[in-house]
Amino acid sequence: MLRYEGLEVYRVDLTLRAPVGTSAGTHLERPVALVRVLSDAGDGWGECGALAGGTAVDPSLDGVWPTLVDVVPARLGRAAASRGGEVPPAGVVAHLFDTTAPNRLAAAAVEMAVLDLELRAAGRSLADYLGIGAAAPPDRAPPDGVPAGAMVGIPADRSVDTLLAAVEGWVTRGFGRVRVKVAPGWDVVPMTAIRQAFPDLRLQADGNGAYRVGDADRLAALDALDLGCLEQPLPHADLPGHAALADRLDTPIGLDESLTTVRAVTDAVKYGACEVACLKPARLGGLLAARRAVDRCREAGVSAFVGGLFETGLARTANAVLSGVPGMDLPGDLSDPADYLVANPAPYPGAAGGRVVLPGVPGVGSTPDLLTLSQLGATVERFGRDG
Ligand code: MG
Q1: Region(s) of the chain under CATH 3.30.390.10
Q2: 280 an active-site residue?
Q3: Among 49, 103, 373, 374, which one is most buried in terms of CB atoms within 10 A?
Q4: How much of the chain, in percent, has pLDDT values that exceed 70?
Q5: What is the 209 CA–ligand 1 centroid distance (Å)?
Q6: Per-position b or e across 322-360, b if 16+ CB within 10 A of its CB
Q7: Given 104, 177, 181, 316, the catalytic residue
Q8: Which helix (H) or strand (E) holds 192?
Q9: Residues 145-194: pLDDT tens digits?
């Protein structure tokens, strides 16, 4: 039994190396919340995916913060008390929270921390837990790992040359898939330029909800470019519109922001609104919910990949492992956090040659560095053991 001893919630204000433009705004600041669950047999770490400004469906970090420091310690403490002091198993953590947005994001962080704690205590890697044989055992040569995709934002100067240089950088480094942010007025021309320069590249476009069904005629021009998908062209709530676009366009329609729960994934697939799924464990309420969402996609013959939220090495390592489960048949957003964060407080296996070798160490596979967190000015709220 793992005896629950408390919780620490860290906040560290990180910065992206360069602004990342999307149709929904520009990302630059990247505050991150990390949670650390304490037990008598060691600690476990989790990361909250909330961004500085949130998204169409996810609250900002400031919006999730009250849940992290008020609701989470109370729920976790009560759940442990009702189990005679035992840390609630990772498999039940999500059930301690409802599916409102702040709760989903907070639950994902806590579940990761509890899972990390359990796996460390059991001497098991996350890859082993998820039934993935691609992890690197300490006594054998590392296997190939999982393929990594990259993401390119809308250049601040809206220059096709700038965009092509960014794409070329990833291709040169061995990344076999590039996901490109598009917006009305920045779509057919830049995507056509990329396709002409890189005829064999696995190429996707991401609209972040900026289009309307009336744009279908113009978007049909993308059909000539053999895109892997056009992701989230319409606002998140418009499943009928996405289903109509999926009928109308040859380009597969992907969903991202629409996929907030396993139920939402199931419904979107059933309605024919989702031909490719961008799954984000932080948004879906955790790794285990994301695993179930992958299963729903696989059963329906829908391709899936893990989407990024500018994670530190902690959550990105978890995402890399999740990317190895059957059904995650497309490369995920698994570039190295060092590529987009000025400072990364948690190690990442790296994406050399466009592949990530999954860690075989016990736990999720990455431990935030306390000294680095301190040097970066992280603050911590303590509940329990030292609080
Ligand atoms: Mg997206």
Answers
A1: 4-123+367-384
A2: yes
A3: 49
A4: 97
A5: 9
A6: bbbbebbebbbbbbbbeebbeebbbbbbbbeebbbbbbb
A7: 181
A8: helix 188-197
A9: 899 999 999 999 999 999 999 999 999 999 999 999 999 999 999 999 99
Q: Are 57 and 236 in contact (CB under 8 A)?
A: yes
CB atoms within 10 A of CB 137: 12
CATH superfamily of 128-356: Enolase-like C-terminal domain (3.20.20.120)
Provide the CATH topology of domain 4-123+367-384: Enolase-like; domain 1 (3.30.390)
Give distance in angstroms: CA of 235 to centre of ligand 1: 11
Nearest-CA neighbor of 155 among 188, 204, 184, 190?
Answer: 190
Q: Is 181 a catalytic residue?
A: yes
Q: Which is the catalytic residue, given 177, 179, 236, 280? A: 280
- Ligand 1 centroid distance, CA of 280 (Å): 10
The CATH 3.20.20.120 portion of the chain extends over: 128-356
Distance 37 CA to ligand 1 centre (A): 30
Q: Where are the beta strands (DSSP E) in the chain?
A: 4-22, 25-39, 42-48, 146-152, 177-181, 202-206, 229-231, 253-255, 276-279, 303-306, 332-333, 355-356, 379-384
